[in-house]
Amino acid sequence: MLAGAASPVIADVRSSEAALRRDSRRENIFLAGLIAPAAVLVGLVALLPILILFVLSFLDESGVPTLQNYQRLFEGGNYARVFATTFRISFATTALCLVLSVPVAYFLSRLKERTANLVMIGILVPLWTSVLVRTYSWMVILQRKGLVNEAGMAMGLWDEPLRLTLNETGVLIGTVQIMLPYMILPIYSAMRRIDPSMSYAAAALGASPAYSFRTVFLPLAMPGILAGTLITFVLCLGFYVVPEILGGGKVVMIALQAAKDVQMFYNWGAAAALGVVLLVLTGVLLAIARKLVPQKLGSTPA
Question: What is the pLDDT of residues 132-166, one digit of tens each?
């Protein structure tokens, strides 16, 4: 009797489950239709060029398959110097941006939100100006008869013009100025979400301001610091305009070397191989960073 009464109930449950599965399939199909245009656009704009780059890296000037383009990267010291210069400048830029950004982000996080937003506008204004224009502006400021050298010699700080362009010093100045907002924004975002009562509680327990900042505030801001560091470093790897102008072509980074391979030697294969290696190295670095600090990158400050 009970079994007979339960049968219609079980049938209704199964029918409801089947209806839910059908509705879920329809919803998935509908959502797939919505994202299809964007997926096609991403495929054409992003994935297809990467695929073409990968294919070109295995072809010589005549279109014959070869590994010569990759062998060239490991033969001689030219490409080794290019990679060393690229990573050295990227690391130095990231370190300088980090040292400069943490105090600025901390200062902004302590301001009232309205005031902080006004100051943030000043930080973001350079992003609205072309990188090319900003780089040429630094060229005017830093050249031998530029504003810095003229002012320094007028005040008696040095007797001869300093070499601030056409070398790594000029490139670092340009890259740091360009990358600072990208470092400040994620750090400020993380610091802004930290509850001020955490620092007050540490002070109430006898911690000094420096100790409280180092042991309480900074660990809570670490997700933003790590995110800003990764963003800055990865973007630095692809710099072209700054080393070309402020470095005068003497500070050769990977993007500049790839451009020379195409423009001077018409060697698309060598340039494509450089691009593929840079892409792989960037992916490896991101994977290592994700593996080493999975919780830090994925967590949200309390």
Answer: 899 999 998 998 888 888 888 888 888 888 888 88
- DSSP calls for 137-184: HHHHHHSTTSHHHHHHHHTTS-SS----SSSHHHHHHHHHHHHHHHHH
Check residue 301 and report its DSSP letter. Answer: -
What is the C-alpha R_g of the chain? 27
Helix, strand, coil tally for the chain in percent (to 5): 80, 0, 20
Q: How many C-beta atoms lie closer than 10 Å to residue 107's C-beta?
A: 13
Task: Enter the pTM of the model.
Answer: 0.80
Query: What letter does residue 127 receive in the DSSP assignment?
Result: G
d(CA 302, CA 194): 6
Closest CA to 289 of 226, 221, 224: 226
Which one, of 121, 118, 93, lies nearest residue 242 by Cα? Answer: 93
